[in-house]
Amino acid sequence: MDGRADDAVTIGRWRGVRIDVAPRDAVSAEVAVAIAGVFSYEIGRNKPGGGLGNLDTALGGAITRLRADGIFRAEPGEVLTLSAPARPIQATTVLAIGLGNPAAWTPGVMRQAVATAARETIRLDAESAAFAPSLLDSGLDPDSLSGTPEAMLAGLFDALPDDRHPARPGTLSRWLFCVGAARFEAVAEVFRDSFDRLAVR
Q1: Beta strands in the chain (DSSP E)
Q2: Which pLDDT tens digit goes with each residue over 8-23?
Q3: Are 138 and 47 in contact (CB under 8 A)?
Q4: For 67-85, what is each residue's pLDDT tens digit?
Q5: Helix, strand, or coil here: 39?
Q6: Bridge-partner residues for 80, per DSSP?
Q7: Are 174 and 31 contacting, i.e. CB atoms less than 8 angstroms apart?
Q8: Mean pLDDT of the chain
Q9: Cα–Cα distance between 135 and 118 in angstroms, integer?
Q10: Could you count the other beta carbons within 10 Å of the beta carbon of residue 2?
Q11: In the predicted model, is pLDDT for residue 191 greater than 70?
Q12: 4-35 burial, b if ≥16 CB within 10 A, otherwise e?
């Protein structure tokens, strides 16, 4: 299952991986591994909203329950793996990637999170993955998110094997960044511009 939905836009290819952007979330993305960023708490709300809220609901509240119990603290770089989730989740594996304290968030935190997610996806030998940052879902101010697309792409580039360390046959070939439907075309263009800048370095 390569997960290419009709609403996905390809922004480039890097080291054998097609990179797409789509107005989807971790529930609806048709990929092998669905990934969501998770903070240690939400700003101004009791639980996550949007796509992250949908994912948590589809998992029977597992993410927020395990976080509340201290089993998954959502510290930066911490990974929670949930296998064989039930429908409506399309993926066969869900990863929650810790983003830490939302008040201390920077694009650098997102770069680390995407790199961690990509390395874990490669370790799982999955062919496709989708990453939902969950920033707005967690209450962050949209005006504070400048530089996020470039940071996410940089994190992916950090993790993808190069010619000196090639991926095994049949491994990751498609990566999807999930973004909101609002202003999707403009956001996709920012991703394209960011890809073009990073790809020439």
Answers
A1: 9-14, 17-22, 33-39, 79-83, 93-100, 128-132, 174-178
A2: 999 999 999 999 999 9
A3: no
A4: 999 999 999 999 999 998 9
A5: strand
A6: 96
A7: yes
A8: 91
A9: 18
A10: 13
A11: yes
A12: bbeebbebbebeebbbbbbbbbbbbbbbbbbb
